[in-house]
Amino acid sequence: MRCKFFMWLAVNNRCWTADRLAKRGLPHPVVCPLCDQATETINHFLIACVFSRQVWTFILQSLGLVGIIPSAMDGRFTSWWASSSKRVPKEMRKGLNSLVILVAWVIWKERNSCVFEGSQPNVQKVLLSVRDEGLLWCMAGASKLQELLSRSLSPAAAQALLARDVGTGSV
């Protein structure tokens, strides 16, 4: 339920990012805590941020979904998500939606860790979290996510992807 609520907030631009905090005169980070390069907005940190694009690139490339990797030119998270969903076969859409929710949720948690705990952004840690959470989601019944992994990769490659050591730069 937390992920669904977060996605509702993100889609409706209701997350408490720096741009929203600034509008209300509240203390906020000057720049994105993940990349330290631009003003933080929901759209920036989910798809335009260099850090987030590294995460998306690695995951989508590993799944053979290179055509939907977000670019710096993608302005809105919701537009990118909708167009990406349309670009995959219909039977893969629910799995892709689960993956998008999972990755966005983990990036949000990493952002919060940087803001509230003073940690440094770590792509490998995010990839490991996506892998671990993804395994839990699949075990809990996210069958379409599991299908996405098995359709995008051969069964052996899917297992290898889930079993790789993040310390080597792999999921």
Describe the structure.
The structure is a single chain. By secondary structure, the chain is mostly helical. It has one domain (2-168). 63% of the residues lie in helices and 0% in strands.
Which key phrases capture this entry?
globular; 0% strand; 9 helices; mainly alpha; disordered C terminus; 171 residues
- Helical coverage, percent range: 55-70%
What is the total tally of β strands? 0
Helices and strands: which structural class? Answer: mainly alpha
* Poorly predicted spans: 165-171
How do the strands and helices of this protein lay out in sequence?
Elements: H1 2-11, H2 18-23, H3 42-48, H4 50-62, H5 77-86, H6 93-117, H7 123-139, H8 143-152, H9 155-163
Helix pairs in contact: 1-6, 3-4, 6-7, 6-8
Quick structural overview:
The protein is mainly α. The chain has one domain (2-168).
